[in-house]
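Annex B. Sample input.
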Amino acid sequence: MSTPKVDPAVKAELAPNATLRAGINLSNFLLVSGQAENGDPIGVSPDMAAEIARRLDVELKLVTYPDPGALADAAERDEWDIGNIGAEPQRARTIAFTAAYCEIEATYLVPAGSPLQSVADVDQPGVRIAVKGRAAYGLWLENNIKHAELVKTESIDDSLEAFVDQKLDALAGLRPRLISDVAGLPDARILDGGFSSVQQAVGTPKKNTVAAAWLAELIEDLKKSGFVRELIERHKVKGLSVAPPANARD
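Annex B, continued. Sample output.
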């Protein structure tokens, strides 16, 4: 596959030293599904970063973070040039995002005997929801929940533990993870539908205005060409889908 010529201004912003530093969130098991012998992450997200580096004709350095909050916090510390992370309004204050390249449905798990029958039932007074606070879906709930109470935790495992130990009314999460969780909770249910779809995108620090425009165009090309779908199939990821074209959301 040939590498189209890139405007030198884009390279100057993204890889001034001929190396693209890509921030990778290790906590999303759909996008990082394994580890190489040298410790580098393997999966859809690292492969997206590798393709961007190939298009720029530069070396790639993966900079890993334990969760998306830590990756977002580093946006103004000059630790990465692109960051593969869920696009949320709070993060967009410091990061310029492309449109999503893939989506993951977020929904609720409820305990045995729960009167909650639909996603719409959950946001009401007295309902307590366990959620990983700085996950993309956690940020969405923070912006959109009006009546229920969010019980925020530091990790996905902690949110499951809080849901069980505190006898909470709902557990928010990505559907693929909730499918795993429900197997260990007798008579618990996952509600049909979802409250949002986590928009996995590529971001760059806000100062990189020329690069942001180039990345936005590139991501649309990678979706249209089938490249993103091929990555999902290659890594055998269930629960991840290619996002629609950016103009489909207008």
